[in-house]
Structure formats: C-alpha cells, structure tokens
C-alpha cells in the first residue's frame, strides 16, 4: 500500500484533470479505445471508479450506468476507500479471488492508459509518471494473458524492442502508440 497509493493517487488526479478539460463538443470524438467515443470513455471511467470503490470496501462488482459527469468525485471516493489499510488485505471475491494488490494494479493501469486514450482523443498534453508506467508495464507483462482472456486487453500491437516503456505498455495491451484522431 505504501508505494502504490501515491502512484494511484497521482495517476487518478491526472485522469481527473483530463476529464474536466473535455469540452461537450468533444464527446462524440473517437478514442484509441475503439469501443468508446470520448463520452463513453468518461462513462467507463466513472463506472470503474465506482466499482473499484466497492471492491476496496469488500463489495461486489457494480453495473455500468449511464454517463453522469462526476468522474472526479467518484475517483476521490475510490481513493478514500483504498486509503484504508484493510482495503489491501486478502483477496477480492468479486474478481475471482485476485489479491487486492493485483486489483490496485488494475486500477493503476486503467488510469494511465485511459488517461492517454482521453488525452489523444481530445488533443490534450499527457505525460504519465515514469514510475507508474514502469509499475504498470511490469504488472501487465505478468498478467497480459489474463487481461486478454477477460477482454480487457486487445491483441498486441507491434512496437520496436527499444521503444519507450509507455509505448511498450500501450502495444502490449493492444493500443497503437501512434494513434491520432
């Protein structure tokens, strides 16, 4: 918890800043996450924040509702739930018994990658924290097959072996680092 919580917090705040800078006329714009336009991606982030708050409290997976426009508030509640030491203990029954530390890594990767998705789609500047990228890449390299089986990751996109770590992370989960709107 001691090393993950600051990474989760900073990645979440970066994502919140990107969300709040989106203009309504950008809602229909495509994103690198092919199944979502900008509004649907923000709605997905809202749902993920609500679900990860529930998971941190020992609750169930939640169902995704419609876009509400309150991601920053939901994200803050999620961070509050994860700031409790007991949130990090044991396993998550709602996600098939994954260790809670694994669940926290899922959140980190989601924030880092979906932050990039949103920034690219809305042409905002985005530079994820190097430590969050390194942590997310290590985690994803170990769990990529689980992510593909669950549908969270797409087929890999080839990137050069000497590509920057963030490009390797994006390619590993199925994003094209060169994507442009």
Automatic annotation (TrEMBL):
Question: Locate the Mycothiol-dependent maleylpyruvate isomerase metal-binding domain: which residues?
Answer: 10-119
Fetch the InterPro entries from UniProt. Answer: CHP03086 (IPR017520), DinB/YfiT-like (IPR034660), Maleyloyr_isom (IPR017517), MDMPI_metal-binding (IPR024344)
Secretion signal span: none
Q: Which NCBIfam families does the entry mention?
A: maleylpyruvate isomerase family mycothiol-dependent enzyme, TIGR03086 family metal-binding protein
Can you say what this protein is called?
TIGR03086 family metal-binding protein
List the source organism: Nonomuraea spiralis
């Amino acid at each position: 918890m001691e090393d993950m919580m600051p990474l989760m917090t900073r990645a979440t705040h970066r994502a919140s800043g990107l969300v709040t800078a989106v203009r309504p006329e950008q809602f229909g714009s495509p994103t690198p996450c092919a199944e979502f336009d900008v509004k649907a991606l923000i709605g997905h982030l809202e749902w993920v924040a609500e679900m990860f708050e529930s998971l941190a409290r020992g609750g169930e997976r939640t169902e995704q509702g419609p876009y509400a426009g309150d991601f920053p508030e939901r994200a803050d509640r999620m961070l509050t739930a994860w700031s409790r030491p007991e949130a990090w203990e044991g396993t998550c029954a709602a996600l098939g018994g994954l260790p809670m530390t694994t669940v926290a890594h899922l959140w980190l990767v989601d924030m880092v990658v979906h932050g990039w998705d949103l920034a690219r789609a809305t042409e905002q500047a985005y530079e994820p924290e190097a430590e969050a990228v390194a942590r997310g890449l290590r985690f994803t390299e170990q769990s990529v097959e689980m992510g593909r089986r669950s549908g969270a990751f797409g087929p890999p996109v080839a990137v050069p072996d000497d590509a920057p770590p963030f490009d390797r992370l994006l390619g590993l989960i199925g994003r094209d680092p060169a994507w442009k709107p």
